[in-house]
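B., you asked whether I could sanity-check this one before it goes into the benchmark set. Here's the sequence:
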Amino acid sequence: MQKIAIIGVKENIGYELLNLLSENGFSVNDIIAVEPKVPLGTIASYGEDDELDVFPLESFDFKKADIAIFCCTKEIGKKYLKSATTSNCKVIDLSSASFTMSDVPSIIPELNGDLVTNDTNIIAIPSSCVYQILLPLATTIKNNPLTRLVVNAYISTSHYGRPAMDELFSQSRKIFLNESLADNEQVFKKQIAFNILPQVGDFIGEETELEWQLNAEIKKVLNSSIKVHANAAFVPTFIGDGIFVNAEFQNEIDATNVREDMKTTSNVVVFDKNVDGGYVSVDDIQGEDSIYVSRIRQDVSVENGISFWSVADNLRAGSAKLCFDVLLKYFIKRS
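And here's what the prediction gave me:
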């Protein structure tokens, strides 16, 4: 069995990926846990009964691994990706470090898996939001290409990691206890508890980082000059993203047919009833592996348009599960 190194086991996505590997029968002996700047003696849980020694990234020999999965920050990924590839590791990159590399495909198997060949050494995993937007449309756009997407993304604090989630918890607690929030805005620029912040990432011109990323990644995955307009805001939730998607197509489209296409797409669950509560909310899908879709309807403001509501556990379904599927499909050999 190949040895799989997980870089960033203390990150939220790394934790979820370890859970998926354990749940799917990967032996603890085949997993190598790696973390930057980790103290000696650090361990990570693996499944219900096992533990992994965590090795420091700074001194890790990538020749000990056959596959390296980067669940770390972009900065860490940029620094160590080359060390992995020059050690003949196959690499799956969730850090976004390889996104701008023209020879590295950004893969959603249902959409562009044919880009992966036997010579592919690095596969980039697109952001969880891009997966959540495009996967429900994968079956439809095989026969009716997209021409424009407008997305409104409501983003959980987990996108900024544990410190951001802790800040939401701390602020919420202080508000309930009528305590001051002074000096309690370390991660976000403004109060996040009971608030909505229309900024996800630093500003790049008039767009924020996530808005720019959605535009660029969608075009790369689809290999298309499709027009994309993205709006993103942080909402006071811990895990899970909700996205309204308005999609315009090249040819006439019917929302009923799109709904049926979505029902046949792997890792997509349609729950769409026009009654009170007949939709899926972020709270419903934490810990789930699939993308859930509701509110599928015709967009009558444009020709050939539909809209839908998409929710997913951004850590589990949006990142770790996509990474796991890519691992099994393209890199792993299981006896």
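One thing to flag: Residues 133 and 245 are 7 Å apart (CA to CA). Otherwise nothing jumped out at me.
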